[in-house]
Amino acid sequence: MKIYRFDAAVGRKIDAFDSVNFVMSKVVHLTAKARVSCAHLGPNGRIGHHKAVVPQLLLLVVQGAGWVRGEAADRIPVAVGHAVYWEQDEWHETSTDTGLMAIVIESEAFAPADFMPPSETANRS
User: Fold this and answer.
1) What does the longest C-alpha to C-alpha distance in the chain come to?
2) On the CB side of 61, how many CA atoms lie within 13 Å of its CA?
3) pLDDT tens digit sequence for 87-119
4) Read out DSSP for 6-69?
5) Among residues 105, 102, 95, 58, which one has the least CA distance to residue 80?
6) Domain total for the chain?
7) Going by fewer Cβ within 10 Å, which terminus of the chain is more open, N or C?
8) Which tens digit of pLDDT belongs to each residue from 45-99?
9) What is the pTM of this model?
């Protein structure tokens, strides 16, 4: 057995797109176009508003809570157990007051609706 770390202490600080208090820890690259990481947002953290480079299941929220938004200014709350999917080129932003940790999966081959039921919170961009 081997034990590895993906906590914020071993991640890389990201400040692109006016991001704040954001660290990304790489977990695994499955293929050249599919990778898994862990996003750590500290208190008052933000992943700045930007376009998705590839389809991404960003925010398989595993700890904390926050908000996401698409191109519109409306913030949609997310918490543990929520999964947020963005299409390639879709504008998005994530923020939190108290902190949030989420698994990030980026791939060109996604069909999250095949496996997960939609959230009753909101499904809008």
Assistant:
1) 46
2) 22
3) 889 999 999 999 999 999 988 777 777 777 888
4) -SGGGSEEE-GGG-EEEEEEEEEEEETTEEEEEEEEEEEEEEEEEE-SS-EEEEEEEEEEEEEE
5) 102
6) 1
7) N
8) 999 999 988 877 667 999 999 999 998 879 999 999 999 988 889 999 999 999 9
9) 0.84
Tokens of 51: 């376009």
Domain that holds residue 24: 13-109
- Both structure tokens of 21: 């208090």
Structure tokens at 122: 């909101």
39-59 burial code (b ≥16 CB/10 A, e <16): bbbbeebbbbbeebebbbbbb
CB 69 within 8 A of CB 76: yes
Q: How far is CA 62 from CA 11, 17, 23, in A?
A: 17, 24, 15
Structural domain includes residue 35: yes
- Domain contains 118: no
Residue with token string 């709350």: 77
